Amino acid sequence: MPRTARKKFPGAILHVMVRSISEVSLFRDNRDREKYLALIKKYKDLYMFNVYGYCLMTTHAHMIIDCCGSDISKIMKSINQSYVQYYNKRYGRHGHLFQDRFKSKIVDNDNYLIALSAYIHNNPKDIKLYKNDVSKYPYSSLAIYLGVKKDHHNILNTSFILQHFSCDIIKSRKTYVEIMKKAYNNMNSIELAKEVEFVSEKSEYRSARGFILRETLPEDIKEFMSSYLGCDVNLHLKYSHKNNELKSLFIVIARSFSNLSLTDICLMLGNITLSNAWRLSQRGSLLIQTVPQYKNIIQDFIRQKISVNP
User: In this predicted structure, what is the pLDDT of residue 187?
Assistant: First the structure.
């Protein structure tokens, strides 16, 4: 039976959930959880999306992701495929890890966003050690919201949700604590959202956000790379170390800022295989992270070639 097409739109905020296949722990220890958060950070920097909350449990994880114009399927495929490679290598296993596709649901109003955030942050309530204080669970974003822990991975945007309550961060956090308490006592009640009062519901939901138009043509990417790197970018040359490096960077930018699928990119580069294109994209990500010459290429590309809609 064919899968139902996933509903998407460029400015979507989404509740995303991933779950492992039965009888397998998605995260066996804190090293695994740290790796998953590091991958969120890696692809957040490449795809330029926002994270408004997360909670990593043993067999599943919840996230609130603002796509900012990017494609949620590209985001989650990149994160999850990279994690599977790490996980299988570490534990000497093969095959699938995640249960089918990730699940996603569009968050279409402020009340639901607040209730969802409280629900996700209360997930550890059934763990005996954290039953009386879910904020102490180390792999939830709640402690960062409350200001008792720093965002060491630098992946979280807390202000978008907290600003709904007050411009004063202390008052805002106190209000959020009260919402968490109500959610704790009634985890199944989405009606909780209707009880939330905002300082202003009129404009904050949209005015605080923007999204990046991801409609760049391949020719514009090649033109930018030629100018930026000071060399003629010919992606169809036979194998060479330098040309593979250029292909890697091209794939990363095209995946982030165009409507091209990985299959489209394979055909454009001379009918290379999907697995080879994936390896090149991973190499491109590593180049941007580690080579000083490429450190700011994503930000510079946005400034020169991309429109950002408020």
Answer: 53
DSSP codes joined into one string, 73-90: HHHHHHHHHHHHHHHHHH
Q: Could you give the CA distance from residue 87 to residue 81 in angstroms, rounded to a whole number?
A: 10
Which residue has tokens 């004063």? 168
If asked whether residues 103 and 197 sit together in one domain, one would say yes
Q: What does pTM read for this prediction?
A: 0.82
- Which H or E run includes 28? none
Phi-psi category of residue 230: left, alpha or beta, with phi > 0 → left and psi -120 to 50 → alpha: left
pLDDT tens-place string over residues 40-49: 999 999 999 9
Distance separating alpha carbons of residues 135 and 218, to the nearest angstrom: 46
* Angle, CA of 14, 20 and 23, to the nearest 5°: 155
**pLDDT (average), residues 107-119:** 87
Instruction: Give the dihedral sign, CA 72/75/81/87.
Output: negative
Which of 245, 293, 290 lies closest to 45, judged by CA? 290
CB atoms within 10 A of CB 211: 21
Whether 200 and 229 share a structural domain: no
What per-residue confidence (pLDDT) applies to 206? 37
* One domain, residues 30 and 59: yes
pLDDT digits (tens, 9 = 90+) for 146-173: 999 999 999 999 999 998 888 889 999 9
- What range defines the domain where residue 131 resides? 13-207
